[in-house]
Amino acid sequence: MTYEWPLYFCLFLALWSAIVGGVFSAFSEFIMSALLKTEAAGGMEAMQHINRDVIRSQFVAGILSIAVFSTLFSFYSLTVFEGSALAALILAPLVYLPSVFLMTIFGNVPMNNRLDSLDHTSPEGHAYWREYGRKWTRLNHARSIGSVLTAGLYTIAAITLITSGQV
Q1: Rg from Cα positions in the chain
Q2: From CA 135, how far away is CA 137, in angstroms rounded?
Q3: Count of domains in the chain?
Q4: What letter would DSSP give residue 4?
Q5: Which of 161, 146, 157 is CA-nearest to residue 66?
Q6: Residue 59: which residues within 8 A CB-CB, separation 6 or more?
């Protein structure tokens, strides 16, 4: 049975995962780098505002939706696809969930919450800011890699679905 929507859905998830990975990468490579080069109070205050704004953004909705849609799509795929396409569709959420979704929930978000609770002019805040910048950026690099790997897996799945005639 031929369905084209799974192909388009693979491409959509690939594109959205790549966009998320690009945002993470850009943030780590030059935004966070610039914030850490400023005076601690200024960089910290700017990051506090960024973290407050991002919670209400389409970006966070995208991170969450990829987790949900990729998981549901992998379960659907178990009943429809086979071979390399199925393997890629199963691997995609297995990469994304721990490296992006769970790392965000259990790594970056708690660090953001702690940063938000500190006064950006306090010595305690300044001390945490340097530690935060180093650890948060490292986690963000991992989230970027996880997003890009997920995008690659969805691209492989799409190509495999086409070449194997499953769509």
Answers
A1: 19
A2: 5
A3: 1
A4: S
A5: 146
A6: 20, 23
> Among residues 136, 55, 155, which one has the least CA distance to residue 95?
155
* Domain hosting residue 13, numbered range: 5-163
The pLDDT value recorded for residue 164 is 87
Could you give the CA distance from residue 122 to residue 167 in angstroms, rounded to a whole number? Answer: 59
How far apart are alpha carbons 36 and 143 in whole angstroms? 19
> What integer pLDDT is reported at residue 3 of this predicted model?
67
Largest interatomic CA distance in the chain:
65
Extract the residue ranges of the chain whose pLDDT is less than 70. Answer: 1-3
The confidence score (pLDDT) of residue 1 equals 47
Continuous H helices in 27-122: 32-37, 40-54, 58-80, 83-96, 103, 109-117
pLDDT score at 2: 55
State the pLDDT at residue 165: 85
Residue at token pair 């929930």: 105
Total-model pTM: 0.91
Distances in Å between the alpha carbon of 153 and those of 25, 51, 65, 159?
A: 18, 29, 17, 10
